[in-house]
Amino acid sequence: MHPLKLKDIQGIIIRGYSNLRAACFVLLEIQNAKATKQWLLTLSNSLQNGEERPSKTCLNIAFTYEGLKALGVDKHTLSTFSNEFKEGMVTSHRSRFLGDREESAPELWEWGGPNTATVHILLMLYASDEAALLELYEFHAKNFAGGAVQMNKLETFFPKDEEDVRREHFGFRDGISQPIIEGLSRVGSPENTIKAGEFILGYPNEYGLYTERPMVKAQQDPQGILPNDIEGSGDRDLGQNGSYLVFRQLSQRVQEFWRFLDDATKESNGQSNPNAQIELASKMVGRWPDGAPLVKTPDRDEPALANDNDFDYHHTDPHGFKCPLSAHIRRSNPRDSLDPAPGTEKSIAINKRHRILRRGRSYGMPIAASMNPRDILNAEVSGERGMHFICINANIGRQFEFVQQTWINNPKFSGLYSDTDALIGDRNLEGIEATVTFTEQSMPVRKRIIGLPRFVVVRGGAYFFLPSISAFRYLASM
């Protein structure tokens, strides 16, 4: 096992800063490269690394491909970045398989799309409270103003219910299922422990190989800031201890979600059935609102299982009778249910090659503080709410894009033929490829819910390079 160089790894890879409940994400466009690099150089000792857990504030920074070009990175170095990162999130073929169509089309995005200003830098600011966050933001805004212009400031909100449980806006407990990075102090099941190279460049991945990394010719690094390529090419490794970061702003149609469930579960006399609403919502998610997985407790919520993540599918629920095959958590992490050998180590090994680390934050005020569906349905709605989806992966194509295309938006997933992810999936509303169905597997016959609308709409997004702290210094001192 290769020891992780935590002092050189940006902290957002190692932890999600759950103790720092206030956060904002600032999107910048470089207008003066020299001034911007001078500003970045002053930040090189301020970046939060992965060794220490911050207690009050912290800062992490990432760059788009266009941002690296604007900084003045040479053509050869730029050519060594991954194709997905170079092409960006909004190519036409990528929009098709990511499900960024119709209301989610990049042409309608608020940032990151073809009709918006170009994003170069992502400034990620975290603090213990809103007052500390405002002070941190104002400090950095004063200093970046000489070289970069703020395109957007994305605010966040830390939704909690009345019992101080963190939830996303649909009302489900958030942040339960995360892979464990091999080499950190946190331990867990072997099935959920993933090689560091899946998330951090410069370490062996689940294939036992080093994921392709951006490189710099030795003569381009006369100060020797970067480490040598561990594979012996003679180049300097710009990627080592860094990663790629996927950012998507996802607007959640919370009241529409619960209204659809209300209509789908009404009694024959037209009366609402709140228990049936929650049961159907839980089947779409794969967990009860408090977090218990349906595969372990299909008929009722179990508070003792609220954070349970130790389960599989093939041996306990191969046909989806407990947790439907199209449930969100079953699609986004199929565990041991993948062909060609479900229930075996081979299946688990395949699954491990497509995991992502989630580091997102919610935004917008909850429709109802209680997160109770009845309160949500009866509330007056204003403003927007959703999720700033952020994930870390060393290979965008094999991890984030694979999950989105092959599992989330694939109507043929696990033997289905017209279902996409019930919660976040794309909806094709017409023709023989219509994907507006949610199927509940059962004996003797299945039950199908039809006419699912889009519950989540993309408002913006981009791919970023999250450099190591030494690579950040190199970029600032070129």
Automatic annotation (TrEMBL):
<comment type="similarity">
    <text>Belongs to the DyP-type peroxidase family.</text>
</comment>
<keyword id="KW-0575">Peroxidase</keyword>
<dbReference type="InterPro" id="IPR011008">
    <property type="entry name" value="Dimeric_a/b-barrel"/>
</dbReference>
<dbReference type="InterPro" id="IPR006314">
    <property type="entry name" value="Dyp_peroxidase"/>
</dbReference>
<dbReference type="GO" id="GO:0020037">
    <property type="term" value="F:heme binding"/>
</dbReference>
<keyword id="KW-0472">Membrane</keyword>
<keyword id="KW-0812">Transmembrane</keyword>
<keyword id="KW-1133">Transmembrane helix</keyword>
<dbReference type="GO" id="GO:0004601">
    <property type="term" value="F:peroxidase activity"/>
</dbReference>
<keyword id="KW-0479">Metal-binding</keyword>
<dbReference type="GO" id="GO:0005829">
    <property type="term" value="C:cytosol"/>
</dbReference>
<keyword id="KW-0408">Iron</keyword>
<dbReference type="Pfam" id="PF21105">
    <property type="entry name" value="DyP_N"/>
</dbReference>
<keyword id="KW-0560">Oxidoreductase</keyword>
<dbReference type="InterPro" id="IPR049509">
    <property type="entry name" value="DyP_N"/>
</dbReference>
<feature type="domain" description="DyP dimeric alpha+beta barrel">
    <location>
        <begin position="46"/>
        <end position="136"/>
    </location>
</feature>
<feature type="transmembrane region" description="Helical">
    <location>
        <begin position="456"/>
        <end position="476"/>
    </location>
</feature>
<protein>
    <recommendedName>
        <fullName>DyP dimeric alpha+beta barrel domain-containing protein</fullName>
    </recommendedName>
</protein>
<dbReference type="GO" id="GO:0046872">
    <property type="term" value="F:metal ion binding"/>
</dbReference>
